[in-house]
Amino acid sequence: MNARRLGYLFRAVSSDVILVIVIGAALAFDFTNGFHDTANVVATSISTGAARPQVAIAAASLLNFAGAFISISVAATVANDVVDAAVITPTIVFAGLIGAISWNLVTWYFGLPSSSSHALIGGVVGSAVAASGFQVVLAEGLIGKVLIPAIIAPLLAFVAAGASIGLAYRVIGKQRPGIVSRGFKYGQVLSGGMLALAHGTNDAQKTMGVITLALIANGSLGAGSNPPIWVIASSAAAIALGTYSGGWRIIKTTGTKIIKMDAAQGFTSQGAGAAVILASTHFGFPLSTTHVINGGVMGAGAAKRLSAVRWGVAGNIVTAWVLTLPAAAAIGAATYGVTSIFGSGAVGPVVVTVAALGGIGAAFVRRAQRGAPVPVQSG
Amino acid sequence: MPGLAEIVETKELVQTVVFAFIAGVGVTAIFSVAIWGVARFVDLSQEDRPVAATAAAAIATLSLLVVMAAVVIGVIVMTSK
Hints:
The complex is a heterodimer of chains A (379) and B (81). With 379 residues, chain A is mostly helical.
């Protein structure tokens, strides 16, 4: 009797330890998401001179925080429509998160603006498949709510930004360049703010969705539940802190290496990006905000002059986009394999967490020793 | 295994495309009109044409108000679901 009770107690404590590790890993992912995506949100404002870097980043982090509170549609999609929540365990969610965080850090290290969102979804799908086979994947949700919008959204931002800048140049005609430039720089305060709000609402919700999925898997929430307020608030805080910490090397890629922008192009790319992300968020599509923002930047550049876009750099970014889902899925699956070596308890996640923290620490030290940012080939 | 047409939520996807395109292009177009109005107001004021300058200023002001209204409506729609 006592042994049975002890066994039950051990399993309960073990499950709670895994849940705490998962929530910590999810919030760490959210932090790296903000850290990784700072560039996407503020690069155009900084590169056109519309805002000083410190001001742009501080404002973006505040608006990221606010944005996280305005919708939960995307969180519901991630929690309920991508993998079968009934067979998911906290360990599977943990392995998926490690896959996403690892891929985020690799692309950050090399200065490539890949998608944190696809890394997260890829990681969770990969670890779920490794644990329970392909039948755990909800094809309708994954294809209809993630993959198809993932293809359409950046193209839409590209076309909308291209059409916008064409229309803007036509309306402005031959007005004084000084007034026009100042006007669009003021406008970028608004468009940059909307973009930061949009980024916060779509990206923070993915973390909310994953934590909610882990809570459902642990039995702490019922199937189909929405994220509790503490999950929303902690996800908002993590992404805002990550954004404030910023990814300076990726700013360089997005802001100056894809295209040299004027203020009108900055305004239109940010406006188109914000419109696409907000509309998609409203319908619960977990987009890659990175893809959308870069689509807008390229559209604004290509509409003015095709050769203005450095297609070699754009090609490198597209390569990173294509690799993200399978790479994060592979790391997620491998992580699940490693954790399962230690059984179904908390030992596996603890060992992997310690190893991951060691790896991350080593990467930061190595990067600090190298000093200058890794250049992105402009091929 | 359902077909692609059944998997994709076509109505929501089309609405996303339409709303995003209209909002993105529309706000930029109206904001451009506002900047045009400001630029014309400065030029016309220097040319000593007060009526035309006032009209340009009115167009600029109205356009800015429309842009602000569009942003507010967008946020309200987001929070209403």
